[in-house]
Design goal:
By secondary structure, the protein is mainly α. Helices cover about 80% and strands about 0% of the residues. Keywords: Cell membrane, G-protein coupled receptor, Membrane, Receptor, Transducer, Transmembrane, Transmembrane helix.
Length: about 400
């Protein structure tokens, strides 16, 4: 199985450049630390915001919680790679690899689950309503353990390394198990989730386009549009929150594809090069590849790590409701007294507004009742003279 920290840690890749010195290796470790720390801070902000608000009740956000936790675990292990914990012992190295690979699987399939949720919501909305009572956390309990079981193969596919001042574990290259596991790993961790993301998003785009064409062909489209516009204005924040949630379901998979594709293209080329052409120049520290290619590989890894560190940026960019909730949630945590005073003021204003509305409605009702009674009195006055005339005749 592919060793994330072996081929993915920038210090290891930079060994391809024979003129690299310790300073360049230290700078790449600093980059890993910066990515890990910034990503962890952003993920903590996202998780606290979701758990301290109503966002956690949304089905989509339950997948986002799993995604953010998996990304945070990956970033913690990335910091261990930067501090070279895997240089200490073989056991620590293997455990680090196992956690890295497992969290990567959970992250990829959480994004695939998000895309499936969006596809059902837009293309088959009635089915989504039928399954609204199903707890998404129970569904995730069925598939989340699978990566933990599959990646137990790490303990078979990794062996001890005797290279001084290097990691204490390495992939057992040249074996049949390694030739089978590495392509399967790429397929299950990237190609299959990516295929699900691309196909379902294309189907969603086709559904939205067809709905727009049918709407424009409808002769009553203009009236329906004005009615929907008035209804949306009455709905207020609820409509915008729903739109933001749908936008997140689109932006997260797109960012996943953009940031992961260069890294997995390198991995696919490396697997073909090693297993078909029996050339390990891309994965071997002594491969002697061109410096430009080495830098491109480094950039691919930077983008790959950025996928696990950009959750809060993606959520904030996708949803104005999320940005507002971040401010409210952290105000409640950091300034509880001020937040409580603000909430009391808002509640009093809302109570006053409701009372004013009720008073206004009662005045209107009384006015209508008075008008109605006056009309009844006038009608009775007109009927009485007619009755008197008929009696005289």
């Amino acid at each position: 199985m592919f060793s994330v920290s072996d081929n993915a840690s920038l210090p290891e890749i930079s060994v391809h450049h024979e003129d690299m010195n310790d300073e360049s290796i230290d700078s790449s470790s600093i980059i890993l630390i910066v990515i890990g720390l910034l990503g962890l801070v952003g993920n903590v902000i996202s998780l606290v915001t979701i758990f301290h608000s109503r966002l956690r009740k949304s089905a989509a956000n339950q997948y986002l919680i799993v995604l953010t936790i998996a990304d945070s675990v990956f970033l913690c292990m990335l910091l261990m790679v930067a501090f070279k914990v895997d240089f200490l012992s073989y056991e620590l190295c293997v455990i680090e690899e196992y956690i890295l690979m497992t969290s990567s699987y959970v992250s990829s399939w959480s994004i695939a689950a998000l895309t499936i949720e969006r596809y059902i919501a837009i293309v088959h909305p009635l089915k989504q309503l039928r399954y609204t009572h199903v707890n998404r956390s129970k569904i995730m309990l069925y598939w989340v353990p699978i990566p933990f079981i599959f990646n137990l193969l790490q303990f078979i596919n990794l062996g001890p390394s005797d290279v001084p001042n290097d990691r204490k574990c390495q992939v057992l290259s040249g074996t049949l198990l390694q030739a089978i596991i590495e392509p399967a790993d790429v397929f299950l961790c990237y190609l299959l989730p990516c295929l699900i993301v691309v196909v379902l998003n294309l189907l969603v785009a086709a559904k939205v386009e067809d709905s727009g064409k049918n709407f424009l062909k409808n002769p009553d489209a203009e009236g329906l549009s004005s009615d929907f516009s008035r209804h949306s204005r009455r709905q207020g924040p609820s409509a915008s929150a729903s739109a933001g949630s749908t936008r997140i379901l689109l932006v997260v998979p797109v960012v996943y594809i953009l940031l992961n594709t260069p890294f997995y293209i390198y991995r696919i080329v490396d697997i073909i090069n090693a297993n078909v052409f029996k050339n390990d120049a891309l994965s071997s520290p002594s491969g002697g590849i061109h410096p430009v290619i080495g830098q491109l590989i480094n950039i691919a890894h930077y983008l790959y790590y950025g996928n696990f560190a950009c959750d809060v940026i993606v959520y904030a960019f996708s949803s104005a409701h999320f940005r507002k909730t971040v401010i409210i949630a952290w105000q409640a945590i950091l300034c509880p007294h001020w937040h409580r005073v603000k909430q009391e003021l808002l509640n009093s204003q809302a109570t006053f507004s409701r009372r004013t509305t009720l008073t206004h409605r009662s005045i209107i009702v009384h006015a209508k009742e008075a008008t109605h009674l006056k009309q009844l009195d006038n009608s009775q006055v007109q009927i009485q003279p007619r009755q008197s005339l008929s009696s005289n005749e």
